[in-house]
TrEMBL record:
Family in the record: Belongs to the RBR family. Ariadne subfamily.
Alphabetic keyword roster: Coiled coil, Metal-binding, Nucleus, Repeat, Transferase, Ubl conjugation pathway, Zinc, Zinc-finger
Entry protein name: RBR-type E3 ubiquitin transferase
Reaction(s) catalysed by this chain's protein: [E2 ubiquitin-conjugating enzyme]-S-ubiquitinyl-L-cysteine + [acceptor protein]-L-lysine = [E2 ubiquitin-conjugating enzyme]-L-cysteine + [acceptor protein]-N(6)-ubiquitinyl-L-lysine
A GO cellular component annotation in the UniProt record: nucleus
Coiled coil segments of this chain: 321-363
Compartment(s): Nucleus
GO MF annotation terms: ubiquitin protein ligase activity; zinc ion binding
Length: 367
């Protein structure tokens, strides 16, 4: 047990190079002795740097850690004692496989899970949704390691992809400038009424629910035989394909949140005009929430697909991804035109979209 070491009446402290009475010397289990004042100073400096359970002996190359009771015995200032106990508690939570602090802003709630794996966690206090394993935004079907690689790559290549962030494109038929002000990728030119896809600018008629072709990246089968520069261009082209769709769905989620607020105002007006009750119009909010859930899942399929190796499994994944994308766009189109959409038609579309989403997760979510 750490405590005073019986020795000669006076000893020289190797840190402050000052002689002290033997009663003022303390040691850890390694038996390296230092005076009480140096221990106090050592602990204060370490705690101010945010270190608690990792405070070690002052001797060179000694890795023996200071026990909590030993540290507390040498902390005189109440604020440092409180800070140290706070840090040790945080270290305990962070090192415990079944515990995690909620990553929500200014939230100190601790979440516990019997199974310490990548799964959706929701804070009961601030309602933050996150992955229990890594603490980042929930990212199914992509696993924690892949999403970390993807976000690092996005941050590194953000300047290269900046041109994608524009909200306007030209209509492929009449070439008039169009702004995307909703989440749906099914666009209709306000000038010539041409229906086209925001992502690939192709005719929307070719984007049937059977196969949503533009979500899939077509690899160059001969790229291995091309020059280094050609391979670099192909790698960038592939990355931009997936990044553009990842970013587009992120923006669509924000735009659809704005659409929901507009919908809320319209419904309020209808209720005030005695055109039904809030309960009568509740299905629209259910549809909007389901759309957000489906689009969120779809957004995270793109990092997953980017890092997948070519083969039958990737082809199956892209097929299911394309089906989900098509049904989501159909659902988004109907919600944005809720006033003219038949309720039964909308609820049927909700059912189809959710089945596509759950099937994809069931087949490809690694648990």
């Amino acid at each position: 047990t750490p405590g005073p070491i019986p020795c000669s009446r006076y000893e020289m402290c190797p840190v402050c190079v000052t002689q002290h009475m033997s009663e003022k010397f303390y040691n850890l289990s390694c038996a390296h002795m230092f005076c009480k004042d140096c221990w106090i100073m050592h602990f204060e400096v370490q705690i101010k740097q945010g270190i608690s359970t990792a405070i070690s002996c002052m001797a060179k190359d000694c890795e023996v850690l200071a026990p909590e009771d030993f540290v507390l015995k040498h902390l005189i200032k109440p604020n440092l004692r409180e800070k140290y106990q706070q840090f040790t508690f945080q270290d305990h939570v962070k090192s415990h496989p079944q515990l995690r602090f909620c990553p929500g802003p200014n939230c100190q709630v601790i979440i516990r899970s019997q199974e310490p794996k990548a799964k959706r966690a929701v804070c009961s206090q601030c309602r933050t949704i996150f992955c229990f394993k890594c603490g980042m935004d929930y990212h199914a079907p992509t696993d924690c390691q892949i999403i970390k690689k993807w976000l690092t790559k996005c941050a590194d290549d953000s300047e290269t992809a900046n041109y994608i962030s524009a909200h306007t494109k030209d209509c492929p038929k009449c070439h008039i400038c169009i702004e995307k002000n909703g989440g749906c990728n099914h666009m209709q030119c306000y000038h010539c009424k041409h229906d086209f896809c925001w992502m690939c600018l192709g005719d929307w008629k070719s984007h049937g629910s059977e196969y949503y072709e533009c979500s899939r990246y077509k690899e160059n089968p001969n790229i291995a035989h091309e020059s280094v520069h050609a391979q670099a261009r192909e790698a960038l082209k592939k990355y931009l394909h997936y990044y553009e769709r990842w970013e587009n769905h992120s923006k669509s989620l924000k735009l659809e949140a704005e659409t929901l607020e507009k919908l809320r105002l319209k419904i309020n007006q209808k209720v005030m005009a005695n055109l039904g009750t809030w309960i009568d119009w509740q299905y629209l909010f259910v549809a909007a929430n389901l759309l957000a859930k489906c689009r969120y899942t779809l957004q995270y399929t793109y990092p997953y697909a980017y890092f997948m190796e070519p083969g039958p499994r990737k082809e199956l994944f892209e097929y299911q991804q394309a089906q989900l994308e098509a049904e989501i766009e159909n659902l988004s189109w109907k919600i944005e035109r809720a006033e003219t959409t038949d309720r039964g038609d909308l609820e049927n579309q909700m059912d189809i979209a959710e089945k596509r989403r759950t099937t994809l997760l069931k087949d490809f979510l690694d648990v």
